[in-house]
Design brief:
By secondary structure, the protein is mostly beta strands. It has six helices and 53 strands. The strands form 13 sheets. A 14-stranded antiparallel β-sheet has the order 35-36-37-38-39-40-41-42-43-44-45-46-47-48. Strands 6-7-8-9-10-11 form a six-stranded antiparallel β-sheet, with no helix packed on it.
Length: 709
């Protein structure tokens, strides 16, 4: 037995959260029980087993990386959106700016282009008609009262003849019985949000804190008991008020300390990624910096480019710079000097003419990266491009391109969605050209991965889509579809949730990168599970996970045969390959270790010998953490344990029992602190995989209590 260190090139798929590793290379081996000549032969033999492609979970990799200082926060606008509160079925009719009306051919009707709802205007009686589910509502003023429409204008029967309105055929004329409650309508022409309760608010206590949270709403609402202050989370930002009706103020920098004390086992813990200073927030910031890379052939890429304008191209200056941006197109066209640059689906192109023809950029002017956050084209500053030796172009972008920005606070950085700035849209000839969303959702970290919550006030600016949710006393059902013009990604999905858990399914395809991903996820009050698949060309990977309040166990296998598994718990992280000899680990010292359940053993000259840390070493480890009240647990740093040859399989999930006493809780706290400290000086993780029985497992830190408590 021995240890192998490896390196390779990485390609991250941020949709499926998978890291694909190509060109893996052995950088070092150590077989302590073999002489030099035999060890060299073993190294050469092992190299023949390495597959050309390996893959690991991105979350697994992020969890094993040492914490780094967060990048400087972006100067975002954190003014609160308009916040409505409802206690019965309600909708938000969000019109992006002044209503932009477009004629319905061969009728006296017009429809409002810049809203996410089917909204029509009858010139004959100056009345608006709104389709909601299986019924129609009507009003003479968008800001006025809405009432059920018992009949529609006769010309409305012609509307479904247009393909974009074909779905309305079922409700024209209005059904005699709609079968639903008439919803309240909240209208806004600026970014807005609805906190929708199922009846009067119901709150639950968060253990070990002075916080309660609302349980009968999809919104995130907390109350800090000592002050009776309300705290509301949307788009990664916290707002507070003494009354749900407002006024609301930005509150992220001033959150009560109890928010960071929310136990991971609490249903409320999903918001920890939005609480400055928490490990979840640090992980979210780190994940937002992971780039999505694409390698494109210049000639093929530029042949697909076409930019459509509403009339002749129109440009406005970018404040604080000498550049200008196109206002009457949904694409990001920027004028730098006498050259026009286009950022389309994460790839840069250039042309001497705003209408093309376009050429794939080999590099991007540095001036573009000085565009301020207040500009509607700021997100393109997160896209970089370079030329490979073979003539192909490598483009990459991070989360900022999709509207997720690092927001700094005195206690730590978090991820905020949307810049917070609003720009009036451009309408021309019946077409609507919106800018990037002012606020565009929120990221929540739920143990294994990130969950994206679409807010009510996302009026399809930046990412076009629709979402419908039906609420009832036994849960909710949601379906939706969306198209993101930034990346060209289409997605559709459906989910259902009840008091006993939820199930969801979704799939997405990006025609520009050729990446397809599908996922099936589910949750219950105390666990969540699921599986995902991602493919890019001839490379693919599947992965699975199981999570509870005690931790996560995940496994992954690649199309080239690689297998490995890892566990992340409150006690630390592990990675393991299972062979005929049991579960083994690799140490930084080049030795192979295993845990018998009663302690650690080291493989030495064909046999296993018990090992333990000296008392002086224990005291030194405790001193480095600043915690000396209790004896710290054993800490083993591992790389990649291998057996050649041996058959490997993914290990079965093992339940990690929670501590039952204060001493165990203290040891767990010390273990986590020591793990963070050790991570700061550890090497980056290496690849994991399996081929013909050879197992390589990523470098991680294993933290376990010495007496198994």
């Amino acid at each position: 037995m021995g240890v192998v260190e490896m390196k390779g090139n990485t390609d991250v798929d941020n949709v499926a959260k998978v890291v694909i590793i190509t060109n893996p290379q052995v950088t070092g081996t150590h077989f302590p029980s073999l002489d030099q000549a035999t060890a060299e032969k073993m190294e050469q033999s092992f190299k023949t087993f390495i597959p050309p492609t390996l893959s690991i979970s991105l979350h697994r990799l992020i969890a094993s990386l040492p914490m780094q200082q967060a990048p400087a926060g972006v100067q975002l606008n954190n003014d609160p959106p308009k916040i409505f509160v409802g206690y019965r079925p309600s909708i938000l009719l969000n019109v992006d700016g002044e209503p932009a009306l477009s004629e319905v051919p061969k009728t006296n009707l017009k429809f409002v282009v810049n809203t996410q709802w089917p909204l029509f205007f009858d010139n004959g009686n100056s009345t608006y008609y709104l389709a909601v589910g299986q019924q129609w509502l009507t009003t003479n003023s968008l800001e006025g009262q809405w009432s059920p429409a018992k009949k529609l204008p006769p010309e409305m029967s012609k509307v479904p003849q247009d393909k974009q309105w074909s779905a309305l055929k079922k409700i024209i004329p209005p059904p005699a019985k709609s079968g639903g409650v008439t919803p309240a309508v909240f209208y806004s022409d600026k970014p807005a949000e609805v906190i929708l309760f199922d009846g009067q608010p119901v709150y639950a206590q968060v253990p070990d804190t002075q916080l309660t949270y609302a349980t009968n709403t999809d919104s995130v609402v907390f109350v800090f008991t000592p002050t009776q202050q309300f705290y509301y989370l949307t788009a990664g930002r916290w707002f507070s008020a003494m009354d749900l009706q407002g006024p609301w103020t930005y509150a992220t920098p001033n959150l009560p300390a109890d928010f960071a004390k929310i136990p991971p086992s609490s249903p409320a813990s999903a918001i920890l990624a939005s609480v400055p200073g928490t490990d979840e927030a640090k992980d979210a910031v780190l994940l937002a910096q992971v780039p999505t890379t694409m390698t494109v052939k210049p000639a093929e890429a530029q042949a697909k480019v076409k930019v459509a304008y509403g009339g002749d191209p129109k440009f406005e200056p970018i404040k604080g710079t000498s550049m200008a941006y196109a206002t009457n197109t949904q694409d990001k066209v920027i004028k730098v000097g006498d050259v026009y640059y286009l950022c389309l689906q994460g790839v840069w192109f250039m042309s001497p003419n705003p209408q093309g023809p376009w050429t794939t950029c080999t590099s991007v002017p540095q001036e573009i990266y000085t565009i301020p956050p207040s500009s509607p084209v700021y997100n393109v500053t997160y896209v970089t491009q370079s030329t490979n030796p073979d003539g192909t172009v490598q483009a990459s972008y991070t989360a900022g391109y999709l509207g997720a920005f690092v927001l700094g606070a005195a206690t730590g950085a978090i991820i905020a969605s949307g810049s917070g700035y609003w720009w009036p849209p451009y309408a021309y000839g019946g077409y609507y050209y919106p800018y990037a969303a002012t606020y565009c959702g929120g990221y929540y970290y739920g143990g294994y991965g990130y969950h994206y919550a679409t807010p009510y006030y996302n009026s399809a600016t930046g990412a076009y889509g629709w979402k419908q949710t039906a609420y009832g006393p036994y849960g909710s059902a949601t379906r939706g579809a969306a198209y993101n013009p930034y990346t060209g990604t289409y997605a559709r999905g459906a989910s259902v949730s009840t008091p006993y858990g939820s199930r969801s399914a979704a799939q997405a395809y990006n025609p520009y990168t050729g990446t397809y991903a599908q996922t099936r996820q589910g949750s219950s009050p105390n666990a969540q599970w699921g599986s995902s698949y991602v493919s890019r060309g001839n490379q693919s990977a599947t992965m699975g996970h199981y999570s509870t309040a005690n931790g996560t166990v995940a496994g992954i296998s690649g199309s080239q045969g690689g297998k490995a598994a890892g566990a992340s718990t409150a006690w630390g992280n592990t990675a393991v390959g299972k062979t005929a000899s049991g579960n083994m680990y690799a140490g930084h010292d080049g030795n192979v270790y295993k845990n018998t359940g009663n302690g650690w053993q080291k493989y030495d000259n064909g046999s296993w010998n018990s090992v333990s840390l000296a008392s002086s070493e224990r005291r030194r480890r405790a001193a480095t953490t600043g915690l000396v009240q209790a004896e710290p647990p054993t800490i083993a740093l591992v790389k990649a344990a291998i057996t050649v040859p041996a058959k490997a399989d993914i290990i079965a999930p093992v339940e990690v029992r929670p501590p039952k006493c204060k001493t165990c809780k203290e040891r767990r706290r010390i273990a986590n602190a020591a793990h963070r400290k050790a991570s700061a000086s550890s090497k980056l993780p290496v690849v994991q995989g399996e081929a013909d029985g050879a197992v390589a497992v990523e470098e991680v830190e294993v933290v376990g209590a010495a007496d198994n408590s």
